[in-house]
C-alpha cells in the first residue's frame, strides 16, 4: 500500500534530519552525551544500575547513511539502560487485577499500545512509565511506550529506558529499524540479544531537534494513518465490487431489465405447455416418476415485478429434479473411474471438479445419475447454494439437488439459481439449526421468473459477455 511505503519513507527522512529545519541555536549533541554519561556514573555510584561492559568504537564501515554535522552516531547502549525480563511461574500471577501488571509477550501488544490481562505481586524485572517495551523473542518487534507507572516484564520482552532525551524519538527510530531487527533475530526460535540492542547504532540529534522531529512525525504520520484507512476501505471496495456488480447484473437480468423485450417472442404459456406435455410423455414411458402437484402461486409470494410476457413458475415445473445418494463404500466394486461422483467440495463458481474418486459401471446402478446440462446445487450446510452446470454424465451425493430443465436453456435457469434472490430464498426455506438443509420437495417450490425461450437466449448472451468482463475486472 502507498501509505505503508510513505510511512517508511517519512521515518527514514526523519532519522536523517531531512524532515525538519536545523537551527544554529540548538545545543551541541556532545553536551547531551556528556550529561547522559555523568548521569550513568551517578546511578552506578548510587548502585541503582550496574556498570556495563565498554561498548566498541563505531567504525566507518558500520555507518549506514550520512547524517547532519550537529548529529552524532552512537550505540544505543550509550544513551539507555536496558532491562531484561523474567518469566513468572503460574502461581505467581493472577487475572484478578491484584498487584502490578505482568506483560508476557506479543499478545499484550496492539498497534503500539498494551493490553493488560495479568497481574503479579512478585515483580522483579520492573519497567517504569515512559520505558519502551520491545518484544525480543518469538515474535520480534512489537513495541509500545509504557503508560503504566510500573509493570513486570517476561523474558520475551526488553525495556529500553532513556536516561536523557526524547523517548518518542527513540521509539520512532526503533520502529524505523524493525525490519532490520527482525532479520537479525532469525533462527529456529527467533530472538535478539541484549548485546544486539546495546550495540545497535542510532543517529542522535540535539535534544531540541529530537523534539521537532517527534512533533513533525506526529502530524505527518497521523495524516498517513488517514490515508491508510482510506486505502484499506478502497481495497475492500475494489475486492467486493466485482461480486456486488455481478449480483446486481444477475438481479437486473432476472427482472427483464437487461435486455429488450420483443413483441415477436413466442408466448411463455406455449413453452410451459410443451414442458408439461414432455413430462407426461416421460412419465408414460416410465422414464421419470410422477411428481406431487405443486401448490398454486399466490400474490403474496411474488417477490418483484417481471415483464408482461414472463411468468412466475415453481422450479419443479420446468424440469426433472432429484436429490443425490451415496452408494455404500463397503462395496469396493462400486468404486472406479467410469463416472465422476460429485460432492459439495467439487462445486464452485469456476466450475465442477470431475477428476475425483468416482464410480464403476456397477456403482452407477445404485447411484443417482444426471446428464450433461443438468444444474447441481448444494442443499445442506455452510456451502448451501453453491451451484454449477455439469458438462458430462455424473453421479452426486445426498447433499446436492439437481434439475434438468426441459425445453429451457440450462444456463438461464443456472443464472437465476445463482442470483442473490434465489440463494436467499433457498436459505430462508432451509430447515435445521446447527446444519441448515433444504429438502427437494421445498426446493421444487421456489419461484423463478420464466421468459420465452428467445428471451432466455438473449439474456444468456448478454450475461455471458458482462460476467466475462467482471472476471477481467477481478484480475
Distance between the termini: 18 Å
In DSSP terms (H or I, runs of 4 or more residues), the helix count works out at 12
**Assembly state of the chains shown:** single chain
Extract low-pLDDT stretches: none
Fourth-tier CATH superfamily name of the largest domain: DNA methylase specificity domains
Level-1 CATH class name of the largest domain: Alpha Beta
Using the 3D structure, state the CATH architecture of the largest domain.
Alpha-Beta Complex
Mean pLDDT: 92
> Portion of residues in helices?
25-40%
C-alpha Rg (nearest Å): 35 Å
Topology, number of strands: 26
Instruction: Tell me the β content.
Output: 15-25%
Biggest sheet: strand arrangement: 3-7-4-11-8
Which structural class do you get from the secondary structure elements?
alpha+beta
* CATH fold-level label of the largest domain: Adenine-n6-DNA-methyltransferase TaqI, Chain A, domain 2
How many strands, which pairing sense, and closed or not: the largest β-sheet? Answer: 5 strands, mixed
Kindly give the count of domains.
2
Task: Tell me, briefly, the overall form.
Answer: elongated
Summarize the structure.
This protein has 475 residues and is an alpha+beta fold. The chain contains 12 helices and 26 strands.
Amino acid at each position: 500500500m502507498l501509505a505503508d511505503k510513505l510511512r517508511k519513507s517519512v521515518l527514514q527522512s526523519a532519522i536523517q534530519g531531512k524532515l525538519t529545519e536545523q537551527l544554529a541555536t540548538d545545543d551541541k549533541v556532545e553536551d547531551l552525551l556528556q550529561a547522559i554519561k555523568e548521569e550513568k556514573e551517578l546511578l552506578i555510584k548510587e548502585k541503582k544500575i550496574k556498570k556495563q561492559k565498554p561498548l566498541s568504537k563505531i567504525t566507518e564501515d558500520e555507518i549506514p547513511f550520512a547524517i547532519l554535522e550537529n548529529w552524532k552516531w552512537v550505540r544505543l547502549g550509550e544513551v539507555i539502560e536496558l532491562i531484561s525480563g523474567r518469566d513468572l511461574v503460574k502461581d505467581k500471577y493472577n487475572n484478578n487485577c491484584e498487584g502490578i501488571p505482568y506483560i508476557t509477550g506479543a499478545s499484550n501488544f496492539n498497534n503500539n499500545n498494551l493490553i493488560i490481562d495479568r497481574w503479579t505481586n512478585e515483580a522483579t524485572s520492573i519497567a517504569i512509565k515512559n520505558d519502551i517495551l520491545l518484544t525480543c523473542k518469538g515474535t520480534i518487534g512489537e513495541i509500545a511506550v509504557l503508560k503504566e507507572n510500573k509493570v513486570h516484564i517476561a523474558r520475551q520482552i526488553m525495556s529500553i529506558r532513556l536516561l536523557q532525551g526524547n523517548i518518542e524519538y527513540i521509539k520512532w527510530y526503533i520502529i524505523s529499524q524493525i525490519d532490520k531487527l527482525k532479520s537479525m533475530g532469525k533462527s529456529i526460535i527467533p530472538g535478539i540479544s541484549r548485546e544486539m540492542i546495546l550495540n545497535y547504532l542510532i543517529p542522535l540529534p540535539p535534544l531540541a531537534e529530537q523534539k521537532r522531529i517527534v512533533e513533525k512525525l506526529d502530524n505527518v504520520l497521523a495524516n498517513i494513518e488517514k490515508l491508510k484507512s482510506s486505502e484499506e476501505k478502497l481495497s475492500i471496495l475494489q475486492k467486493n465490487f466485482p461480486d456486488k456488480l455481478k449480483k446486481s447484473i444477475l438481479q437486473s437480468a432476472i427482472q427483464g431489465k437487461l435486455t429488450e423485450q420483443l413483441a415477436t417472442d413466442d408466448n411463455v404459456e406455449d413453452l410451459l405447455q410443451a414442458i408439461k406435455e414432455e413430462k407426461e410423455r416421460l412419465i408414460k414411458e416410465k422414464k421419470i416418476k410422477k411428481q406431487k402437484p405443486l401448490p398454486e402461486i399466490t400474490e403474496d409470494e411474488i417477490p418483484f415485478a417481471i415483464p408482461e410476457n414472463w411468468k412466475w413458475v415453481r422450479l419443479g415445473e420446468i424440469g426433472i429434479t432429484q436429490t443425490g445418494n451415496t452408494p455404500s463404500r463397503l462395496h469396493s466394486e462400486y468404486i472406479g473411474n467410469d463416472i465422476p461422483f460429485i460432492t459439495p467440495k467439487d462445486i464452485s463458481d469456476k466450475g465442477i471438479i470431475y477428476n475425483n474418486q468416482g464410480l464403476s459401471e456397477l456403482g452407477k446402478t445404485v447411484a443417482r445419475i444426471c446428464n450433461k446440462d443438468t444444474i447441481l446445487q448444494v442443499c445442506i450446510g455452510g456451502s448451501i447454494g453453491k451451484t454449477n452446470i455439469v458438462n458430462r454424465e455424473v453421479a452426486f451425493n445426498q447433499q446436492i439437488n439437481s434439475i434438468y430443465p426441459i425445453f429451457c436453456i440450462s444456463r438461464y435457469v443456472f443464472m437465476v439459481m445463482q442470483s442473490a434472490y434465489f440463494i436467499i430464498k433457498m436459505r430462508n426455506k432451509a430447515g435445521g439449526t446447527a446444519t441448515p438443509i433444504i429438502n427437494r420437495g421445498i426446493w421444487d417450490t421456489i419461484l423463478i421468473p420464466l421468459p420465452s425461450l428467445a428471451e432466455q437466449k438473449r439474456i444468456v448472451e448478454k450475461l455471458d459477455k458482462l460476467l466475462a468482463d467482471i472476471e477481467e475486472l477481478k484480475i
